[in-house]
Amino acid sequence: MNKSRCSLLNCTFVQGFFVGFLVLGIFAMSSGLAFAAASEGVEVEEPEKVGRLEEMVEEMVKKHSLAKLGLSLYGYVDLSYVQNFKNPSTKVNQNRIFDDDSNSFRVQLAQIVLEKAAKTGGALEDAAGFRIKLNFGEDAEFTGGSFGGDDVDFQEVYAQFVAPFGNGIDLRMGRMNTLIGYEVIESPYNPNFSRSWLFGFGQPFTTTGFRAAYDFTEEVSLAVGIINDFRGSISDNNNSKGVESALSMKPTDWLGLTAYGYYTNNSLNVGSHDGLLLGGGIIDIQALESTEIVLEAYYANQVNGLGNGQNTRWNGFAGYVIHDFTEQWGIRFRGEIFEDANGGVSCFGTNAKGGKPGSCAPGSGAGGQTLWETTYTLQYKPISSLITRLEYRYDQSDEKTFLKGTKAVDNQQTLAFQVIYLF
């Protein structure tokens, strides 16, 4: 252990112990004085020494608090129950991501974020920052993109510096959420509990590399990243690098437009160097003060995607309607169609006990499928930090990739209940 780390540890431990000792002492002294005053029926003023001790403790807490250091600590816990009315014998919801356990309670995710956001316009040291986002739970097995990890995953770990040029160039290096797509890993930021196939099958979750972002105006911004791997996994399976980008525009207060793209010679096949191209966009319309409409579509093509000289292609479209009746009550709707033309990105999971998401009925989906779904969500927030959702979802495929008991069928219906607490 190096000297600086030992000094920090000793400092933190000793000061923490000292602060705790002082707090206990003050509590004991205050309690004793209050008891004596009550028993004798007289009013006793607090001694000057006790007042000075309280001030000392308050100063120490302020000096070493996260806020004083410019740090933020926050996160959430995400819990659910999903009922599959087809009662698949595998207890796996077919063609699902993050909600693949059927008829079961699930600890989806517990997330903790520690960050120091970089700022412009101040001292140079304020222009540097970082973020550490740590996930625990069953979703953490898959947030790294490898679909075979542990129940712990560093979803984001990056250093940040805002270079003082123009409006400030935001530079980040490390592991970050992808620039691509509307939905994200974090459930509180999505309108529905379950994820779309656009997100789960055809887009990266996180990326590892270097990113630069710049706000030309309040209405136009551009971000470009050089990254290791499309799936975002920590391991990098070849020497090629990919490029992802997102151009965001807000021409009016009620309209937002985003065009995103990705290109790499990194194939989804390990060790291959065949081009992968993905392009798409998002239209975000604030139709009314309490009603938002979001449309997303993309197209992707992978050269030699199956390793047999045949290209793979996948594309999809999703539409969302988000309406809040009050601050507490709201409804969300999603309709989606997703085509996996050659079987390159769906039916990749397993149906064994503790199986992986994205699975299909045994022996199905190898030649590809077209999926469509509708999702209806009722959201209720009794307090600002607590989100509850009741979701009904209907899935359909042109192939029999779902299970009814042990029988392969072309549809499934689920009812889910979700609880999220933010801190």
Main sheet makeup: 16 strands, antiparallel, barrel
- CATH C-level class of the largest domain is Mainly Beta
- For the residues shown, what is the average pLDDT? 84
N to C succession of SSEs: HHEEEEEHEEEEEEEEEEEEE
Task: Briefly note the CATH topology name of the largest domain.
Answer: Porin
The CATH superfamily title of the largest domain: Porin
Alpha carbon gap, first and last residue: 33 Å
Question: Helices, strands, pairings?
Answer:
Layout: H1 3-40, H2 48-63, E1 72-84, E2 104-116, E3 128-136, E4 152-163, E5 169-177, H3 197-202, E6 206-215, E7 220-227, E8 242-252, E9 255-264, E10 276-288, E11 291-302, E12 312-324, E13 329-340, E14 369-383, E15 386-397, E16 402-404, E17 407-409, E18 411-422
Antiparallel strand pairs: 1-2, 1-18, 2-3, 3-4, 4-5, 5-6, 6-7, 7-8, 8-9, 9-10, 10-11, 11-12, 12-13, 13-14, 14-15, 15-18, 16-17
Features:
16-stranded antiparallel barrel; 3 helices; mainly beta; globular; 423 residues; Porin; 2 domains
Describe the structure.
The strands form 2 sheets. Strands 1-2-3-4-5-6-7-8-9-10-11-12-13-14-15-18 form a 16-stranded antiparallel barrel. A two-stranded antiparallel ribbon has the order 16-17. The N terminus is likely disordered. A hairpin with a 2-residue loop joins strand 14 and strand 15. The chain has 423 residues and is mostly beta strands. The longest helix has 38 residues.
